[in-house]
Amino acid sequence: MTKLFDTLAPDNWHLLIGILFLVLLGRIGAWILEGKSDSTRFPRLVALIDLIVLPCAVLVIGSLVQLVVGLLEIPRAGDGIRVLTQLLVYLSAGWALARLIEVTLLDRSNEELSGRIPKLVTGLIYVAMLALGIALFLWQRGYSFTGIWVSTGVTAAVLGLALQKTLSDLFSGVALGMERPFHLGDWVELKDGTVGQVVDVNWRATRLRGWDNATHIIPNSQMAGQAIKNLHDDQHLYAPWYFVKVPAEVDPRFATALMLEAAMRCENVLKFPYPIVRLSDATTVPFTYMVWVHLKNYPAMFRAREELFREIHRGLQAAGIEAAPQVQEIRTRRAHITQAEPPSLLLALQGLDLAGFLTGEELERLSSRAAFCQFDSGHVILAEAVQSGAFYVVAAGLVEAAITLSDRTRKVTETLGPGKYFGITSMLTTDPSFLEFTAKSDVSLIRIDLDCIRGLVSERPELAERLAGVVKERLDAAEAARVASRQPARSLSMRDIRDRIETLVWRPSRRHRGR
Q: Which residues form the Cyclic nucleotide-binding domain (predicted)?
């Protein structure tokens, strides 16, 4: 470096000015590239140009200053300018190298807050590269690293004692950056209840922005020494659970069904994974129920929680149930006894879409031949390849219809809620069920025998058209799933299904006339 400097300085001013002009042109070109739009920006190319241009510019400017000092005949200035120029060359090269590393890391990360690099990391990169430049300069000047380390040991010990707290925050920040228990953009909850979004981690503190837009500045040593609950960013599902108290007089199955229907009505609550309602505590009065839901992220929790409680209150109130929070005062008035029962069979059947085609007398006849049945979550109500002997109506809960594909995997074709029905396809076509119906939650079903449905269809042939449409829709859905898996499926036309229904209905009546 010294020989190069001495070669450039004397009698080469015109060459130095030309090199400086080229350096300026290179920097202007880098500035033009950097000023482009996001789609055509080349940050790594600009940083690479700086890595070449900046040391050259410092070297050329130092040579020109050396030339001017020589012309002015200023005594003892040449050696100082030479040493200072060499030091600035190493420092500028270290800074440019740190800049290249920074833009490389930024180019690999997202533009979102969660992909940004904390300022602590970038600061450490610059400090390390500048320290490397100083070390190379000292090594080039003939200094020994061992001697420097020994001579500065006492000073380092004094500074360590004086800056103990600051150094603790610094190294705690380094530990947080290496372990990465959270990323920029994550929402975290601290031990004292503070909730905020991580917006920066620097050499001294972590900055959290709360819901009130205030910034909480937490020293890194405190952040590293306490339990942190990471609620994650906007791209992470959030699954909270809430507790609702309902009078003990209400049937638990009826209460869980009401709250499940309320959760399914909420727009801000995800339908998959399904909401889950469970009886949490029946040892005290009132009973406590847990409602577990999934939300698209943590910030959506406030709107979804309000909507969930509103729908639960509306559903309980419509059923004549009063929510029973714990009251911490003694009252002498007569307590209201809650009397709420699940809907009767007749009322449940009146909610079917088929009820519009039936008279009141026919609905009463169906209700007299029907019965309630309950199944726990996960129970297979109607297995695949098994013929159904009854017609099932979902009174409360969720039932999942799935088909087994050729690769032995299950594909869900439909989720049946209250008012939906199944078993009609297998019952009326006399074929085994091509779907498997499983209780996705605790469900209450209305079971109607085959003979009762036959009697109605024989008296009202127009119902056959309606039932054939239902059968056709489910056969088409199953056929589409099988075609997607390259499994052959038998296709039945609307006329074929209607003929089967008529044959099934009229065959018993002909046998009766023959007898």
A: 354-474
Residue ranges of the alpha helices (H) in 163-284?
A: 164-179, 220-224, 252-265
Q: What pLDDT digit, counting tens, does each position of 452-481 carry?
A: 777 777 777 777 777 777 777 777 777 777
Cα separation, 118 vs 125, in Å, equals 11
Q: What is the CA radius of gyration of the chain?
A: 39
The total of structural domains in the chain comes to: 4
How much is the average pLDDT of 270-282? 93
The reported pLDDT for the residue numbered 149 is 56
H-helix segments, 407-493: 424-429, 450-459, 462-484
pLDDT of residue 40: 41
Asked which of 232, 258, 290 is the last residue of a domain, the reply is 232
The distance from CA 29 to its chain's CA centroid, rounded to whole angstroms, is: 43
**What token pair was written down for 372?**
């309630």
Secondary structure letter of residue 96 according to DSSP:
H
Q: Are 46 and 102 in contact (CB under 8 A)?
A: no
Q: Which residues pair with 436 in a beta bridge?
A: 402
Domain assignment present for residue 168? The answer is no
Distance CA 12, CA 261 (A): 88
Indicate if the alpha-carbon torsion angle 223, 224, 226, 232 is positive or negative.
positive
Span of 92-96, 156-160, 385-389 with lowest mean pLDDT: 156-160
What CATH number is given to the structural domain containing 309? 3.30.70.100
DSSP 3-state assignment of 12? coil
Beta bridge partners of 133: none
Residues forming a β-bridge with 444: 374, 396
Helices 119-140, 164-179: inter-axial angle, 10-degree rounding: 110
CATH number of the domain enclosing 223: 2.30.30.60
Residue 202 pLDDT:
81
Instruction: Let me know if 45 is exposed, middle or buried by CB neighbors in 10 A (0-12, 13-18, 19+).
Output: middle
Sequence-ordered list of residues with C-beta below 8 angstroms from that of 304, at least 6 positions apart, any chain: 266, 268, 269, 293, 295
